[in-house]
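Example 3.2
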Amino acid sequence: MLLSSLYIAFGLVLLVVGADSLVSGASRIAQRFGIPPLIIGLTIVAIGTSMPEITVSTTAALGGNTELALGNVVGSNIFNVLLILGLASVILPLSVHMSLIRQEVPVMIGFSLLLLLLILDGTLSKLEAGILLVLGIGYILLLLVQARRAVNVGQNVAVDLPDASGWLARVPAVLLIVVGLVGLVGGAQLLVKGATVIALSLGISELVVGLTVVAIGTSLPEVAASVTAALRGQRDMAIGNVVGSNIFNIALCLGIAGVAAPAGLEAPAQLLAFDVRVMAVAAVLLLPLIITDYTITRIEGLILLFWSAIYLTWTVLAATDSPLLSGFANIVLFGLFPATAVFVSTTVATALNRLRH
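Structure, written as tokens:
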């Protein structure tokens, strides 16, 4: 157990360092070839923060650990919205760019609902994974076209590129890419191995480990990116990092993992009945929160953090077959959930009424 925990800890370190090195090296090479910063930010940086999820889920899928592969993505997307956006908005209320409301958030909701629809039969087949992958590539191409138009008309669009100073600047870009790839692959293998052994030792499913320990661990780049953006005052960028990561997690991560898996990705009953639905609800919930004053307030951030704790508690109680789960579920379903729905509805109604006047 101790050795497996060390595998997980060291694997997470390698994943974070690997993703950071890969993004820094690739960004420097792209800048050297004159690629506009906006395009670099929308592609290399955005996809780079999803590389831990991509490598972990693909490694798990190739090894037959399909529960871990799915749990990693679903759990990461849940915690990205509830935990990371909650934490970032408590630090500083997050303002929302209009493009997020018009395009990115609806696209995230669309991918979340599409994933729910595709795995209702209990499996994400190679064909269905291929559909997600093609749609993801198509979305990236759309972003590139839009970015090129923005650059051509001289729009001043903020981007968050890696810091070019410090020790990373003294390391050759090609070496950074090599180190990044090695770190990602090695970290993914260690993380999957450690998580699998712990799941077997504790008698819980790989899905639960994937939804919690692995999901939170692979979300560390998003945590760093969004919290740093919030501290810098780049409030719309903090949301953009999370929304973009959730889109790429479903489209690229599950797309690649599902195509690579020998027989697609089999979805456990628990994931179908609960977790993937929570992911879809969290994605849909984000829209009414951001259309009210185009901001996620500190109170709304606290609510998101509260629900991340509720989800984690529910998952742990269910995994351990705790007798407390039934009472906890009643409190959540018949008390906390309706209260949150009333709060969100009231907030939206108040904002709409203010707009009319």
